[in-house]
Amino acid sequence: MKYNPNEIEAKWQKYWAENQTFAAVNNSEKPKHYVLDMFPYPSGAGLHVGHPLGYIASDVYARYKRHQGFNVLHPMGYDSFGLPAEQYAIQTGQRPEDTTSVNIDGGYDKEGNKIAGYRKQLDKIGFSFDWSREVRTSNPDYYKHTQWIFIQLFNSWYNKDNDKAEDISTLVAIFEKSGNATVNAVCDDAIAPFTSSEWNAFAKEQQEKVLLQYRLTYLAETEVNWCPGLGTVLANDEIVNGVSERGGFTVVRKKMTQWSMRISAYAERLLQGLNDIDWSESIKESQRNWIGKSFGATVEFNIQNSEAKIAVFTTRPDTIFGVTFMTLAPEHELVAQITTPEQKEAISNYIEKTSKRSERERMADVKTISGVFTGAYAEHPFTKEPIPVWIGDYVLAGYGTGAVMAVPCGDERDYAFANFFKGQSGMPAIKNIFDKDISEAAFGSKDGFKLVDSDFLNGLGYKEGTYKAIEALEKINQGKGKTNYRLRDAVFSRQRYWGEPFPVYYVNGLPQMIDATHLPIVLPEVEKYLPTEDGLPPLGNAEVWAWDTTKNEVVNTDLVDHLTVFPLELNTMPGWAGSSFYWMRYMDPKNENEFASKEALAYWESVDLYIGGNEHATGHLLYSRFWNKFLKDKGFAPTEEPFKKLINQGMILGTSAFVYQAVQFEKEGALDVFMSSNYFKGSVDLTSDKNILWDNYKEIFLKRGLTKEQVDYVVFRKIHADVSMVNSSDELDIEAFKKWREDYKDAEFICDENGKYIVGREVEKMSKSKYNVVTPDDICNEYGADTLRLYEMFLGPLEQAKPWNTAGISGVFGFLKKLCRLYFDEHNLIVTDAVPTKDNLKTLHKTIKKVADDIENFSFNTSVSQFMICVNELSTQGCHSRAILEPLAIVISPYAPHIAEELWSLLGNKGSIATVPFPVFEPKHLIESSKEYPVSFNGKMRFTIELPLDLTKDQIEEIIMKDERTIKQLEGRIPNKVIIVPGKIINLVG
């Protein structure tokens, strides 16, 4: 018999599918265990070898738990809405629903290229997923529930007294009875107070406007990254070097009215919940930092000659007497109001310049110092001295109050800012309030100082000074103590097509929820997925996208009369909407009436093991915890936290290829001109000599309408190219690149002196967005899925990043063939009923213990090593005993399930190996009853002898002295000394 992985694996994959081997039930006498993977985005060309790393690990664990007798829920689905799928559709000129379907189920794209499909790829690797529970976030039967949860959020407010979300009706009842004076809610700032009689006298529209200030999801004007060239808002990671990753268009900061969610209401619970879950400390710390809890004070600074006030939050109220200037975010609403006429032009120019930098860029750039004096002065709350007010892009409108009281003697950034603008009008000298030298740097410590030149705070340290400063600020009504969180409310709108439609229509500009009985509101057909000509989101192109309140259905947009037919929301939900509750939908995926029944939720409760990438630390993992806590408040989710244990698998690294594209900002977008990475003698500084560009390639730039002066401002941005278009010499296939995307078809390439375009190379995360992927299909076809599974686990510790290298795959394949040779030769099964030897049992039980411990500790790579040791030892021992090889098949089955099933079947067993009890480790087989002693004469080992370990020294000496080999070595002599260390050595001296 020959090991034929393709034949064996196809056989057992078919068996599992036909017999629903891995289907979980929602009620069982077995204990439950829920093992979950972060589900994939089905965009582009399918799975790459980086995806299965976490999936294989979770599958090993899920299979092991089945062997232990658990009812295991191990589901899989697709996060099929979102930007990646939409971008792929736009690039290829296809409908997102079509490309998503083909990418999941397989088929052919519009060019006739065969797409394997995620499902077929996943099945080919032999995962034990319960496919009867598959979900797709872009299916209406799924996003119906996403829309329903949005409605629940809209109809809720956060009661700080009860520390939970409540129905909005309870808030209305309070307003009707006593107004809002006593309401302790998470809500908008500066809500005007009203009495119960005033509330009851408000018109319905006015009441709705007030309630919007309290709802957990609400409309608000927020700062966003607006890309006019693409007509959409971009996330920070979609912006590279100040321009859009797609197309190279200018991105500016802009205020837009968008849906937001009050995740900030849950800040403290999100923080405290980290103490109750088994997650890595690094992920917990990422979330703690993102939530950013701090204690300090809000301080109000009056603006001289104005009614305006600047509110700041500071964690260092003890340094209040060290304030020498203030800095506002350029977007701060007060800037226009307080700027003097003399400074107006400089302020306007600076704001325009700053609007082209993303928040991420501004936060990360600690070297660049820039700002402008507004000409206005605030008033110190205690001394009444004038404090100049500046704007600077290191202050962000969305963080805190968007204003900073600058204490340069105690803060490095303020110190650098003050020194940079030293001597200019509006920048006073740095005032030192510490008994420390600040001539070279700010003193930023909270310890080891006494305050000086600080009036009533003189002589105090940080803690005493903080409380005394807050007490004084509260006395003069210009501040109060406050616990603050850095966590901001989450923007929940996207100006895109491929996302969940909001169940919202508008009456007189105010949002109304569509009744849940009419859900889902299905995404309409549109001709194109780009914004309308007047800048509306893509849904503005829909011809049938209005809500008829009499028919309760979506109707033609032309029928809008604002009486019974109203416009629907044009934005869609973000990519994280559907992934914020999907683990609960898996519990009861066929339920049409609710996202999951109470019974299913009560049985499965929460995820026992969650495996996925750490890139989701402050995105998906934070949002999903927020939604889970909200659903718990509303009586739906049974637990406070969704994921008990989280493991982040390390990245599989690939070698990316880069091309270098010309960008001229005045042209509002990237040019279709690319320069070889080695053009300037191997340098990647592609802007070092502008004259070369104009002198040698003038015609290229003239064709694109550029002058020499404009070419002087051409820069080159690094963008990914598909590695499949690059040969082993790093040379780009230019024709293939031109055909890759529509906007590259007329591209021109500045090649090197050999006429070749050489790409740049870099090792980074393997990702479809980086076009550096290697697919698992070829490996499965050549070596089999069991080889791939073992190899990926063998690469190294699960949580570490690992470069992809196929050099070791053949060795793993060889190991599987050697394993098979224990069971059968080229003709027949060779397993016998022979009684196993002591060594056989020792090898087996050593492996049982090691593998069980490794799986429990997620040390999968060392299990693979143990398998190899085990097979080598059994081969050397000539073991073909059923008593050893039958349990061995079970032990290896979580890792290599196909060959394990085949061996189990060949041994005459019926059914699947998947739920056969895991072998029990028996320690007695590892206890040594004898020892092989080295016997030395004058320190030189001459022979070995195996003796029982319970012999005394005298007994050992008697046996050794009577041994024929000893008699021969001594040749009649009597040794001077016999040294015996029981269990270790025997040495005869003299």
Automatic annotation (TrEMBL):
It comes from the Bacteria. PROSITE patterns: AA_TRNA_LIGASE_I. Its EC number is 6.1.1.4. It catalyses: tRNA(Leu) + L-leucine + ATP = L-leucyl-tRNA(Leu) + AMP + diphosphate. Residues 288-473 form the Leucyl-tRNA synthetase editing domain. It holds the Pfam family Anticodon_1. It is found in: Cytoplasm. Keywords: Aminoacyl-tRNA synthetase, ATP-binding, Cytoplasm, Ligase, Nucleotide-binding, Protein biosynthesis. A motif ('KMSKS' region) lies at residues 765-769. One of its GO terms (molecular function) is ATP binding. GO terms for cellular component: cytosol. GO terms for biological process: leucyl-tRNA aminoacylation. Belongs to the class-I aminoacyl-tRNA synthetase family. PANTHER family: LEUCINE--TRNA LIGASE, MITOCHONDRIAL, LEUCYL-TRNA SYNTHETASE. This is Leucine--tRNA ligase. It comes from Flavobacterium gillisiae. The lineage of its organism: Bacteria, Pseudomonadati, Bacteroidota, Flavobacteriia, Flavobacteriales.
